[in-house]
């Protein structure tokens, strides 16, 4: 079978998406370990970690989408808004999968990232519970230094994570001192 025409990928739109950098009082961000591939949203051994992110519903306010995605993926609701990035994009890697897959119609993701300060307790975070009929995406979570996260994600997301780290570096300061 011939390889897919690269021009066809370019003709596809980016999927509107929000990403969340949830900072704790020590200035670290929450990351979750993905436990399964989902079409072009692949994981690679040793690179299973990422910050919460997800699609935006038609007409949905972006800050509300960020809070919804944070809750769906982690259970966390105790968070204050700190700031946001401009739009950032990444392209999905090529994948042999069904054309009917929910992400097959997109070339990648167009994301607006939100910095939030976690104001709750760690026991509020529960990535294993299904919420809003969405299956769990993470099997565990941890706090990590923002400047280290790009080295823990799949390669096609790294430049976006580096841009987020640069733009949100001011929020990665400890609030406990």
In short:
With 177 residues, the protein is of the alpha+beta class. It is built from three helices and seven strands, in the order H-E-E-E-E-H-E-E-E-H. Helices cover 16% and strands 29% of the residues.
Q: What would you say this structure looks like, in words?
A:
The chain is built from 3 helices and 7 strands, in the order αββββαβββα. It has helices at about 5-10, 60-75, 160-165; strands at about 15-25, 30-35, 50, 55, 80-90, 110-120, 140-145. The N and C termini lie far apart (about 60 Å).
Q: What secondary-structure arrangement, pairings included, does this model have?
A:
Elements: H1 6-11, E1 14-23, E2 29-34, E3 49-50, E4 53-55, H2 62-74, E5 79-91, E6 108-118, E7 138-144, H3 158-167
Parallel strand pairs: 1-6
Antiparallel strand pairs: 1-4, 2-3, 2-7, 5-6
User: What structural class do you assign from the helix and strand content?
Assistant: alpha+beta
Structural domains: how many:
1
Rg = 16 Å
Question: In this structure, how is the largest beta sheet organized?
Answer: 4 strands, mixed
Determine the N-to-C terminus distance: 61 Å
Form type: globular
Order of helices and strands: HEEEEHEEEH
Give the CATH H-level superfamily: Nucleoside Triphosphate Pyrophosphohydrolase
- Could you tell me the mean pLDDT? 89
Kindly estimate the percentage of residues that lie in beta strands according to DSSP. 25-35%
């Amino acid at each position: 079978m011939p390889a897919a025409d690269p021009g066809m990928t370019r003709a596809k739109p980016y999927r509107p998406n929000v990403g969340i950098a949830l900072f704790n009082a020590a200035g670290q961000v929450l990351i979750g370990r993905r436990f399964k591939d989902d079409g072009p949203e692949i994981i690679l051994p040793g690179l299973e970690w990422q910050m919460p992110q997800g699609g935006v519903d038609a007409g949905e306010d972006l800050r509300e989408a960020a809070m919804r995605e944070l809750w769906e993926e982690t259970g966390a609701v105790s968070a204050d808004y700190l700031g946001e990035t401009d739009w950032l994009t990444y392209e999905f890697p090529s994948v042999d999968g069904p054309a009917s897959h929910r992400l097959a119609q997109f070339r990648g993701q167009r994301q607006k990232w939100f910095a939030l300060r976690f104001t709750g307790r760690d026991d509020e975070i529960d990535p294993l519970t299904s919420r809003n009929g969405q299956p769990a995406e993470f099997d565990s979570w941890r706090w990590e230094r923002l400047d280290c996260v790009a080295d823990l994600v799949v390669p096609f997301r790294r430049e976006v994570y580096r841009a987020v780290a640069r733009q949100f570096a001011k929020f990665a300061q400890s609030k406990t001192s």
